[in-house]
Amino acid sequence: MGLELYYSPEPPDGGTLIIRGSEAGHIARVMRHKVGNVIGVVDGVGTEYEVELTEVRADRVAGRVLSTRSGAREPKHRVTIAQAVLKGDRLAQVCEQATELGVSRVIPIQTARTVGRLSAVRLERLRTVSLAALKSSTRTVLPKIDAVTGLGELLTAVNEFGQALVAYEEERGPGLGEVLDRKAGSVLLVVGPEGGFEPSEIDALKAAGAVSFSLGPRRLRAETAAVAVAAMTLGLLGDLG
Ligand code: SAH
């Protein structure tokens, strides 16, 4: 797909698709598109349109839908990362890279040793970064970025996933490849904060049905662990490479 991709959640009406806001500004002012040019538009929930522009203004772009396609370039498996909130911009880095890799959802979690804070502004930034990554990676489904969720709340949601796995820095047993169930359909991957997990948190996750795994003998930064875990999981499931 060689077309530039833009995002518009608004469904087409009678074969006409409208793009508003900053995306319209980008098309008109930055890319200087003209009537008659053809662009790609994704709706963030799996549909992609090829659109011939019929009107180009900085606040509103309209076009005629030439073709429609569903679910293109999306992974077959649903991979969710529950990442403890991190300091600075590191959670944004996780959201960006996880989106590119094909992760379906990121749940920022609050754990005992979480020191980073996620304000409403920062949460909005995570979503903005994820949207930019959707376009640059040509995905068609925008990952869901949840509001901050307490570990206790996450425990009650564990059974909504086909399987739940937790990267535990003290685990000396199995690696991801040994515990990943290739047939589960959806997987929740839990990664701790800079200070790691309390043993009681791992016990609680296990009691809720999660399985812990090791990423090897080296200690990884949390954001490195999250991206490694996302890439390995999608790779092992056949959705990467
Ligand atoms: N401060 C902790 C390290 C935390 S690393 C310590 O001193 O041990 C942050 C998170 O990344 C961990 O909670 C875990 O989820 C993940 N992680 C990092 N290295 C890991 C490894 N070798 N195996 C499994 N998980 C790891």
Query: SS-based structural class?
Result: alpha/beta
CATH architecture of the largest domain: 3-Layer(aba) Sandwich
Biggest sheet architecture: 7 strands, parallel
User: Cα distance, first to last residue?
Assistant: 17 Å
Distinct compounds present: S-adenosyl-L-homocysteine
What's the number of domains? 2
Q: What proportion strand?
A: 25-35%
Which overall shape is indicated by the principal axes computed on the Cα atoms?
Answer: elongated
N-to-C order of helices and strands: EEHEEEEHEHEEHEHEHEH
| Spans where pLDDT lies below 50 across 5 or more residues | none
Helix content: 25-40%
Number of strands: 12
The CATH class designation of the largest domain is Alpha Beta
CATH homologous superfamily title of the largest domain: SPOUT methyltransferase, trefoil knot domain
Tally of helical runs: 7
CATH topology (fold) name of the largest domain: Alpha/beta knot
Rg measurement, Å: 20 Å
Summed over residues and divided by their number, the pLDDT gives a mean of 97
Task: Explain this structure.
The protein is of the alpha/beta class. The chain folds into two domains: 5-70, Hypothetical PUA domain-like, domain 1 (Ribosomal Protein L25, Chain P, Beta Barrel), CATH 2.40.240; 78-236, 3-Layer(aba) Sandwich (Alpha/beta knot). It contains seven helices and twelve strands. It has helices at 21-30, 90-101, 120-137, 151-157, 176-179, 199-207, 222-236, and strands at 5-7, 16-20, 38-42, 47-56, 60-70, 78-84, 105-110, 144-145, 149-150, 163-167, 186-191, 211-213. Strands 6, 7, 8, 9, 10, 11 and 12 form a seven-stranded parallel β-sheet that branches. The longest helix has 18 residues, at 120-137. The radius of gyration is 20 Å and the shape is elongated. The structure holds S-adenosyl-L-homocysteine (SAH). S-adenosyl-L-homocysteine binds at residues 167-169, 171, 191-192, 195-197, 214-216, 218-220, 222, 225.
